[in-house]
Amino acid sequence: MPKKRSGGGLSPMQQAAKFLGVSVLAGAVMAGIALPAAGALGLAAKGSVKGFDEIPANLKSPQLSQRTTILDDKGNQIATVYSRDRTVVELKDISPYVQKAIVAIEDSRFYKHGAVDLKGVLRALNKNAQEGGVAQGASTLTQQLVKNYFIEEAGDDPTKVAEATQQTLGRKIRELKYAIQIEDKLGKKKILENYLNITFFGEQAYGVEAASQRYFSKHAKDLNLQESALLAGIVQSPSRYDPVNDEAEATKRRNIVLQRMAELGDISQQEADQAKEKPLGLHTSRPKNGCITAVKGAGFFCDYVRQILLTDPAFGKTKEKRAKLWNQGGLTIRTTLDPQAQESAQESIKDHVYKSDAVATAATIVEPGTGKILAMGQSRPYGVNIRNDETTINLSVNHDMGGGVGYQPGSTFKPIVAAAAIEGGKQPTQEYSSPYEMTYPSPVSACDGKVWRDDPRKPTKLTNENEEERGPYGMKEATAKSVNTYYVQLISDIGICPVVDMAKKMGVQRADGRQMRQAPSIALGTQEMSPLTMASAYAAFASRGMYCTPVAIESVTKKVGSEQKSLEVPKSTCSRAMSENTADTVSTLLKGVVEDGTGQEAGLDSRASAGKTGTTDERYAAWFVGYTPNMAGAVWVGDPQHKRKMTGITIGGVPYDKVYGGKVPGPIWRDMMSGALEGKPAPDFHLIDIPDDTDDEDDRGRDDRGDHHGHNGNNGDTTGQVIGGLIGGPTDGGTGNGGANGDATGGGIGGTFPTPTFSIPENFIQGQGNGGNNGTGGRRH
């Protein structure tokens, strides 16, 4: 058959046959459509040349969807994910038996005709006219390749897939023109290679390499005669000839292929007969796809990487473009995950909290100064089998990245208040009366000239954890003992706005995406946060005041043909959140927490460490957030559903009367960080000399909560703690002890607590506040 000219135009012979070829063939191609042959020919004869000319001249081969490989920072594979399980291979890496078998059964005249097999079309047309339907098709391998291009381009859009496969004259003519173009540009061998890489072989396997692995657990180049015939036979109807589910039907189809190969002289009749006698010889491998395949418990980190690809503008300006990039795959994503840190985190979690426990834990480690996420794990395994305690909710991250609504961090927020105060000029020797019990100071200045006021009719009370905790205290001892009243007096002194501003500079935000509510109770950790947020914030202390946004991806390359193309990736942005002196002062304060305070069980013996415990009202959540100069980590323990209080509870096989931040999260953090840091440098902090407080009372290491017991429950009705407190809805109010104040009340839990019933007082100034926890306050860990 004459070829087209290299420039893409039709040869003289083809031009002469254009109308006849298009008119007759346009009808003839309808042999593959459920229309009578005569009617099809009549329909196609009208305007077919014009319609043919109007079809765009160039068909671009789509980028075939392939597996994406996610690696850790050492280059080890974490997981493979794909929209379609496909590994593209060259023709030389495909068994000659497969090549012969697919041609024999799908298009035996492949090497003798052009884009359209006129002889085959007429044969099918005659057969279908006799049958009055579609008894025989006429598409060549080239036409089938074009059809698969359309399907591939449609992706997972059901509407576009339907358009790509609809049995219409227009689609057939379009398919025909592109087939002619492809025949000229690619040649037979490349067409066959592309076809074998794009076609569907059933069982989630796209392309012959994936099919070979799926059915025989071997490479396509190693397939023998009978194996090749089996795969070639599947293509016509992957569901009907599925050897996994219908061995008998698949065997019949394989033998038909073998016989056809013998008839064409590709193999001898003896070879065909011998192969027919052999069993299918399946050695199946289950497809392994998605973050559920991740090693070292990194499924949630893998999903976090997926979320970044789907949401960050670096990977496409629109949601559709980012989704297309992810679905097409062929990516190699090198991440920041440190395999040593990840394994240590997961092992520590496994040792301390069982997946079947009533509560769960989540832990994250980041690198100070870079924002790199080194580890991310949790006790509930990644997956969709609820009966096996699996979940796909990433408890370490914010809601918009696949997490929940967050958890009140309790007293782990106090160092942010301390940083704001010191940055504003307060000395770490600052003393306050810090009584055991007090009402919230009122009024307190907030941002934008606004003021928070308590309800004078029922002032909100808060207490320290133990009655013997009575001031005066300086900042050092108040931090070590986690004295609630000290920190409420401190924030009332400096105002709410400096704390909100400092939190913003440290990347601290609510996990549900809402604005930080402004009320003095913010000092007690009443705003729901995620472990990643808290670990990244404390990393700013470790890096002497530099906050770096968390980052999970080091590099991304995309396979384009046989080459790897590097893609732009989002970078961490570092900025100064506080002075070095402020950060060093906070580190000095928090070093005292693990040495002499509520966090002693979290301390690291072999290196400098600092941190803070936290426990919320009613013990719905407990935390330990800490750091060394080279790693920062956060551990949360609690009920993801925000229903189970951690009193009278068994966690990891150990019974607890009451759970404190220093008891369960602290040891998890200690073991996690010890393993993550093993063999790594052990630098010291830059400490500040802070004179000891004059008070000789030594009640260190006691409960860090700040339980307000009976004092809190009744205050909520009319308090309307600032701004907003209870106004925010079910996620804001409802859980804590501290009744109406919203902050305390609702803090922690998102949406499962009763709606407050009290009214907002008339003198309530500034309806945006923190919402209820004022009274109840977060326990002081």
TrEMBL record:
Q: Which InterPro entries does this chain map to?
A: Beta-lactam/transpept-like (IPR012338), Glyco_trans_51 (IPR001264), Glycosyltr_51/Transpeptidase (IPR050396), Lysozyme-like_dom_sf (IPR023346), PBP_transglycosylase (IPR036950), PCN-bd_Tpept (IPR001460)
Q: Which domain of life is it from?
A: Bacteria
Protein name as it appears in the record: Transglycosylase domain-containing protein
Its keywords, alphabetically, are: Carboxypeptidase, Glycosyltransferase, Hydrolase, Multifunctional enzyme, Protease, Transferase
Domain Penicillin-binding protein transpeptidase residues, every copy: 362-641
Output the SUPFAM superfamilies linked to this UniProt entry: beta-lactamase/transpeptidase-like (SSF56601), Lysozyme-like (SSF53955)
The record's listing under Gene3D superfamilies reads:
Biosynthetic peptidoglycan transglycosylase-like, DD-peptidase/beta-lactamase superfamily
Organism classification, top ranks?
A: Bacteria, Bacillati, Actinomycetota, Actinomycetes, Kitasatosporales
Chain positions covered by the region annotation Disordered: 447-472, 680-750, 762-781
Every Glycosyl transferase family domain range: 75-261
User: Which regions are flagged for Gly residues bias?
Assistant: 722-750, 768-781
Q: Where is the composition biased (Basic and acidic residues)?
A: 699-710
The reactions it catalyses are: Preferential cleavage: (Ac)2-L-Lys-D-Ala-|-D-Ala. Also transpeptidation of peptidyl-alanyl moieties that are N-acyl substituents of D-alanine; [GlcNAc-(1->4)-Mur2Ac(oyl-L-Ala-gamma-D-Glu-L-Lys-D-Ala-D-Ala)](n)-di-trans,octa-cis-undecaprenyl diphosphate + beta-D-GlcNAc-(1->4)-Mur2Ac(oyl-L-Ala-gamma-D-Glu-L-Lys-D-Ala-D-Ala)-di-trans,octa-cis-undecaprenyl diphosphate = [GlcNAc-(1->4)-Mur2Ac(oyl-L-Ala-gamma-D-Glu-L-Lys-D-Ala-D-Ala)](n+1)-di-trans,octa-cis-undecaprenyl diphosphate + di-trans,octa-cis-undecaprenyl diphosphate + H(+)
